[in-house]
Amino acid sequence: MPKHTRIYTRTGDDGTTGLIGGSRIKKNALRIETYGTVDELSSAIGMARSELRESASTGARADRLDAWLAWAQDALFNLGTELATPGTDPNASFPQIGAADVEALERAIDEAERDLPALANFIHPGGSIPGARLQFARTICRRAERLTITLREREGAPSDAALRFLNRLSDALFVWSRWINDALGSPDHLWNPTNKPPEA
User: Fold this and answer.
1) Partner of 166 at 20 to 30 A CA spacing, among 24, 31, 100, 137?
2) Long-range CB contacts (< 8 A, 24+ apart) of 159-163?
3) What was the pLDDT predicted at 110?
4) What's the chain's Rg over C-alpha atoms?
5) Which stretches of 57-191 are DSSP H helices?
6) What domains sit in the chain, N to C, each tagged with a CATH number?
7) Integer distance in angstroms from the first to the last C-alpha of the chain?
8) 8 A C-beta contact, residue 163 and residue 148
9) Residue of 34, 14, 39 whose CA lies nearest to 24
10) Among 111-115, 140-144, 186-190, which is the least confidently predicted range?
11) Measured between alpha carbons, how far is 104 from 162 in angstroms, rounded to an integer?
């Protein structure tokens, strides 16, 4: 039978946290900020999945999208593990983001875009609630990507595949937002450069 452990350990009360391998660093270190943002991204995707189930639980497209999002959350956890491992040589016993994950996202993007009209305008986040949630997740993904680039410049890690994965995931989140908005009949909010404020 599993043994229950306390969620609090008090070891982080001094403002440090443990990395894989046992070393400890400050909680505001770039590495922690980076994988914390990856965790934030997964949480945002989780919110989108919850809204998706509420809005379109019977739709085949919603079910397909939920499967992709569930996989993306698992892949992000794998990425977080890589980011929580100091040094440039990842632990081979842990799952790693690889080229196959990047290729899977490209396949997902191509699959969704086949159902969508060509995009001739910039769009704002909006449409359905799950669509807006996915756009919000996209902005977090871009922040995670920026932090990962900085971490790589300073410490030589994580892998090239990890960077490509975040770049492709942000594209996928954008397309998935349009894909579910289209399925729910909730149009994207198009950018209108000549828009005027409501009259007084």
Assistant:
1) 24
2) 159/82, 159/90, 159/96, 159/97, 161/96, 161/97, 161/98, 161/99, 161/101, 161/102, 162/79, 162/82, 162/83, 162/97
3) 97
4) 19
5) 60-83, 99-113, 129-155, 160-183
6) 24-87+94-113+124-186 (1.20.1200.10)
7) 67
8) yes
9) 14
10) 186-190
11) 13
Q: How far apart are CA 121 and CA 123, in angstroms?
A: 6
Contact 128, 190 (CB under 8 A): no
DSSP 122: -
Q: Which residue has the higher pLDDT, 23 or 70?
A: 70
Closest CA to 178 of 141, 120, 134: 134
> What residues pair up with 26 in beta bridges, in sequence order?
16
Alpha-carbon distance of 54 to 130, in angstroms, equals 9
- The H or E element spanning position 42 is helix 30-56
What pTM, to 2 d.p., does this model score? 0.89
